[in-house]
Amino acid sequence: MGSPKDKKRFQQFYEANFDKVFRFVLFRVKGNREKAEDLVSEIFMKALEHFEDYDETRGKSAWLMMIARNHVISSWRDERITTVSLTTENEDGDQVEEDFHLINKAKEAVRTGQLDYEIRELIAKLSEEDAEIVTSHYLFGYSYKEIAEMQNMTEGAIKVAAHRAIKKLREFL
Amino acid sequence: MIKLRYNLWKMKRGLRPDNRFKESLRQELERAWGKRYGSVPWFQMAWFRYALAPAMAVVLVVFAGTSAYAYTSPEVVEGTLLYPIKTAVEKVEEKLSVTPAMKTKFYIRQLDRRYEEAAVVEKKVKKTPDKPQNIVVKNKMIKKINQVENKLLEQKKVITSNTKSEVNLKAQIQSALKESEIKKRLITIPTTTLKVLDVEKIRVEEKVPEVIREKLEVIKTKEIEKIMREKENTLLRVNADNKRTSWEKIVERAKNLLPAVEKFMCKNCVTNRFATSTPKIFIPTSTIPSRILVKPTSTLVTPTYKNTIKVVTTTIRTSSTTLPTTSKIVTPTTTVSYPPKISSGTIYYRAY
């Protein structure tokens, strides 16, 4: 590790995965570009640190996607801790927890625009697996083959699942 | 359905990353890579790898050219800068020669090369006789020649069977060694001796009886021929050219005298067996110079040895006295003298 060959391999890996990971993170942080950029930087730094463990034969995207997903989850956890601690005082001077869920939803709708918000709402109606397949393929740009590697399924099964998910989305409209 | 897909595509486009961020992260990652795994040494950098191939090609071409020159040129002798390359290439060639036939051929070639080098050294010795280094180099060359000869002898011992090819090889070795012996003798003759030999030749001729002189002539001409052949002695070559010119003058003079000479032609000469088939020139004794230089016949010059006559037969007869017919190998430096006591009669001579 550390040879020019490895460095080149990492550069190729970065070029191949950057756009997809960025879309994935941006989608997960609900359009917050600054946050997405921070997270993507951290994800790729992690990937660089553990690049020795990267096994090209096991699927190019699955490994990085796993890092990205874990990192986004851990960032949510940190955020939730910070959010819960925020309280405001009412007129009587009592500390009242705000309904952050509602506020955040409103913020997200403003930030991402109405269309994005509607799509997100539609996708949220799908099962977790279907939502994963639809977002990975139609929004992040992963191929069916890459999704199949990530989900440990066959390419054909992913294709069928994606088709069915789109059908369901149409029904929701 | 189409609208849904279009909206998904539109959203995907909205999730597009900023190129500036992508580039800055790339640079940051490169720095991080350098910190973690160490920066790439200069010889592993891409530019170096791309430059390495043409640079190596140029080096190889130059090296191959130098090696080829060093190997083939006789000018590359002991003490010169390229001589180690020459010996190295020879060692490789020796190692690659596996069969006895290959080895024999290689040693014969090596012997030839050593003699070529020795000739170059000899020239240097003549040019700068005050330089002792050249004499040292010459001695080294002789040592090297001895070494190659020994190897050839060993090779001869190795060949034990009597197949046609091996007998041929043995013959080749024998001939090479014999030739080498003669060449070596010539190399070891000091330069001054050669000059003396040339001068002494005529001086001795005037004193000794004719029979001995004839024998001496043969020995000396052979010796000179060898010297000429092997060493291409410039001095002798110039002498040869001069003598050839003087011969041409004599012939020219004889041709001018021809009408007058024919009147003196004796009857015996007409019936003479030598007078029938070849062109002849009759010269009255009075017009004959005390010494005639035999002209080398150009057609008889062999292509192998420049300025050396293969065989020229010279016959000298007079009407009154018949001199013994002589067949001898002559060189451009050979002179044929006439006994001064002959005062009458017609003499003719010819060269084959």
Q: How does this structure look, described?
A:
The complex is a heterodimer of chains A (173) and B (352). Chain A has 173 residues and is mainly alpha-helical. Chain A has helices at 4-28, 33-49, 60-85, 100-125, 128-140, 144-151, 155-172, and strands at residues 88-89, 95-96. In chain A, β1 (88-89) and β2 form a beta hairpin. Chain A has 7 helices and 2 strands, in the order αααββαααα. Chain A has a two-stranded antiparallel ribbon. Chain A folds into 2 domains: 1-85, RNA polymerase sigma factor, region 2, helix turn helix motif (Rna Polymerase Sigma Factor, Chain: A, Orthogonal Bundle); 126-173. By secondary structure, chain B is of the alpha+beta class. Chain B folds into 2 domains: 67-186; 195-351, no CATH class. Helices cover 64% and strands 7% of the residues of chain B. Chain B is built from 11 helices and 6 strands. In chain B, the strands form 2 sheets. In chain B, strands 1-6-3-4 form a 4-stranded antiparallel beta sheet. A two-stranded antiparallel sheet of chain B has the order 2-5. In chain B, a hairpin with a 7-residue loop joins β3 (312-318) and β4 (326-328). At the A-B interface, α1, α2, α4, α5 and α7 of A face α1 and α2 of B.
Helix/strand layout:
The complex is a heterodimer of chains A (173) and B (352).
Chain A: H1 4-28, H2 33-49, H3 60-85, E1 88-89, E2 95-96, H4 100-125, H5 128-140, H6 144-151, H7 155-172
Antiparallel strand pairs in A: 1-2
Chain B: H1 2-14, H2 19-37, H3 46-72, H4 83-96, H5 100-127, H6 132-158, H7 164-188, H8 191-207, H9 210-231, H10 234-263, H11 267-271, E1 281-284, E2 291-293, E3 312-318, E4 326-328, E5 335-337, E6 346-351
Helix pairs in contact in B: 3-4, 5-6, 5-7, 6-7, 7-9, 8-9
